[in-house]
Design brief:
By secondary structure, this protein is mainly alpha-helical. The chain is built from 14 helices and four strands.
Length: about 325
């Protein structure tokens, strides 16, 4: 249960990652924007506390709750593969605060082509850096791959968004219907761009494989099969993620804009739109990320023969990435 504090473990999970609810609790920790305000001293204290636990020199008055909080801070800020700090705008805890601006921009009513291009570019720029910052880094991704991924994502997003917008404008729909349908253009454009971004960005993993570990964290080998599963699971998450964010707010705003309150106060349209987008973004993000565990499990028998020959474990684990 979320209210119970289990015995602390450096490698185990506070919440059962075999269940969706357990992963959801973990994701709420992961995207908690309060960790963005963690100072250097607080981060160092958290890391020191965890190191003391590892060495067996932890003071007796330190509780499991304090240790889990220290680990929450570390996992929100430090990349699990590189051990380096992730920049603020590209942390998962910063995805809502920094990403909401572009979501609001993409959902502006009756946007011009210049606005469509600008906001799709902004959105994919942010997504590209978030993908890179939270990638599986057991194998280094060359800069050229990042540039290729970024260009592919921006091109696909802008191309689909502009193409659909022009199609809608030239259709025989009424003006009101065109305005309503236009609000949903951002979703297919974002989905296709996300898929393009992920597969281009992580080609290096697909070609060379990613490290798989046993339950004790010992690296058994490098697997292309595990890499494909990691990328596929991430892709499904990135299709599910924008659905409520880019579909629910347009429906809500289309209803609110017809109310007497907003008709009499048109200046409140944009701030109310921003509020609806922020709420939808913040609430739905953990639910989408929780679809698959970050430390994913795969049966050893499904992996390459050379990996199976190196371990007696039935299951192996890998970092899926976000």
């Amino acid at each position: 249960m979320a209210g119970e504090v289990p015995t602390f473990s450096l490698d185990g999970d506070q919440f059962d990652q075999r269940t969706y609810l357990g992963r959801l609790y973990r994701c709420f920790n992961l995207v908690d924007p309060r960790t963005l305000f963690t100072s250097k001293a607080q981060l160092q204290d958290a890391l020191s506390l965890l190191e003391s636990f590892r060495l067996g020199t932890l003071p007796k008055d330190v509780s499991d709750k304090q240790l889990w909080h220290a680990r929450k801070i570390k996992e929100a800020i430090i990349h699990p593969d590189t051990g380096e700090k992730i920049l603020l705008p590209f942390r998962m805890s910063g995805f809502v605060p920094f990403g909401t601006i572009t979501v609001v921009g993409m959902l502006l009513p009756s946007p011009s082509l210049k606005q469509i291009i600008f906001w799709q570019w902004m959105n994919q720029s942010h997504n590209a850096f978030v993908n890179y910052a939270n990638r599986n880094a057991t194998k280094e991704t060359p800069t050229s791959r990042f540039i290729q991924s970024y260009a592919g994502a921006v091109t696909s997003a802008v191309g689909i968004a502009v193409g659909l917008s022009l199609f809608i404008k030239r259709s025989t729909l009424s003006t009101n219907s065109k305005a309503l349908v236009q609000r949903f253009v951002a979703y297919p454009a974002t989905c296709m761009a996300n898929l393009c971004n992920i597969f281009l960005m992580r080609q290096n993993e697909l070609r060379e494989g990613i490290e798989v570990e046993d339950e004790n964290g010992n690296v058994v080998g490098t697997s292309k099969i595990a890499a494909w599963k990691a990328v596929q699971d991430t892709a499904l998450t990135r299709i599910a993620l924008p659905a409520p964010i880019l579909i629910v707010p347009p429906i809500i705003m289309a209803f609110l804009e017809r109310t007497k309150f907003l008709i009499a106060r048109p200046r409140l349209n944009l701030p109310l739109n921003a509020l609806v987008c922020t709420f939808s973004f913040g609430v739905t993000l953990p639910f989408a990320i929780a679809l698959f565990p970050q430390r994913s499990k795969i049966a050893a028998r499904r992996l390459e023969e050379e990996i199976q020959a190196k371990t007696a474990s039935e299951d192996l684990y890998f970092n899926k990435g976000l």
